[in-house]
């Protein structure tokens, strides 16, 4: 039986990352949303799931775009970690670290598109993941970042 109400709130917040575009791409008036689970074209209402995209790329995506599925895998670990917190079995510092890494992977994706020059890129997933870390996990991380003397 779940016992930790604060952890349940954190779990819901972390699960919210499933519906937030991790990277928003604007190019030539066209918008593409990179979600943790696939690509969304909001104008044509078309979805390409991540496994479908990866199989369609043949030899694999460009190197910077490989950070996208890596971020998805790390996100799955973060969901598992925060779920363990609900049952008082997890360590919030682990969840926080995983969310920081999710943000880094999506910043890598955003930077890769930005360097191509024809995109306006918004790394929304990075901003949301790092905001979750700050909002929910900063007290747990404060001791790691700035140990007491």
TrEMBL record:
Keyword field contains Repeat: no
DUF8050 domain: residues covered: 5-144
Keywords, ordered alphabetically: Membrane, Transmembrane, Transmembrane helix
Pfam families on file: DUF8050
Annotated TM spans: 12-39, 67-87, 94-114, 120-138
NCBIfam families: near_ArtA (TIGR04206)
Protein name: Conserved hypothetical membrane protein
Source species: Halorhabdus tiamatea SARL4B
